[in-house]
Amino acid sequence: MAAAFGVAAIAPSTTIACAAIIVGGIGAGGSASVGGAALAALTNPDRASSISGLVNRVVVTAVLALIPILGTHMTNAFGIVAVLALATAATVTWLPSSPVKESPETAKSANTTTALPAGVSAKRLTFAGTAFLAMLAVWAISEDSLWAVLGIMGSEHAGLSDQQMSLALSASTAGGVLAAVTLTALGSRVSRTVSISVLLILGAILKLSAGLTTDPTIYLVVVIAWNTIYAATFIVLVAISAALDAAGRWSAPLLGTYLIGSAFAPLFGTSVTAGLGYPTFGVIISGISFVLLGPFALVSRLSARTEGAYRHHSAAITTTVIA
Predict the structure, then answer these.
(1) N or C terminus: which one in the chain shows less Cβ crowding within 10 Å?
(2) CATH of domain 122-322
(3) How many whole angstroms separate alpha carbon 37 and alpha carbon 237?
(4) 159 with 306: CB under 8 angstroms?
(5) Is the pLDDT of residue 241 over 80?
């Protein structure tokens, strides 16, 4: 990632720059998968995902602030990312190793007790994880399609000025940081199932409000609140995937899966708003959150059971080794 984006920063031709960016993207995707798997290896996935989200927001904010200051050309944009990648490469040894040789479905202790909770089969856990990733992609479409039309919807439907839109985007970044700080402080004191249920309901209400309101002030407030809830929801979803399998089987592909859904979001958002209008668009994307509410809550409950069983399993192995 560092080498490729470094080449992109000083590339003498468009062809070389494009090729370097693709290679850099492969490195970035692999790095994100490794980071996702590492989150699952930590003992408190709730706090780990919150801290990860907080650092992500702070770094992204810093990069987006630096690029305009230094100049928005290739050398600065990709040079900053290359330096960050190189600096991060030096910390890779800090990442925790997987606490299991295999995934929890097949891991066994000396007395052949599996790490799965009672009543949960390996097939059921695989189905839940696969369904979770599929739902995540759908959720990404609903969230990022709003991002895709946020500016034009604010201008055409709510009468938002360019200055107000800039304020909304800046305040949204601050809202994301606030969400990450709050969830970091809460840790595991609030159950993931309650958190994801409340956040999805709030997100649905705010997305519907964004599509219906024609008042610029209300739209401004709704956008800021929605982005705060969106950031918090994503953090909880990361925690659910990390807790579902300590080997990182579902948290590793999480970001890649999200980006697959996100890739279709602009087409979805512009097509629906152009064909059906902004109010209908708000109804559709809020409806997606309500549809996903039940399945996400079920997977969240399963992740809590799996996490508890794995901790008990690890303790049993440790006791056996000590004995």
Answers:
(1) C
(2) 1.20.1250.20
(3) 14
(4) no
(5) yes
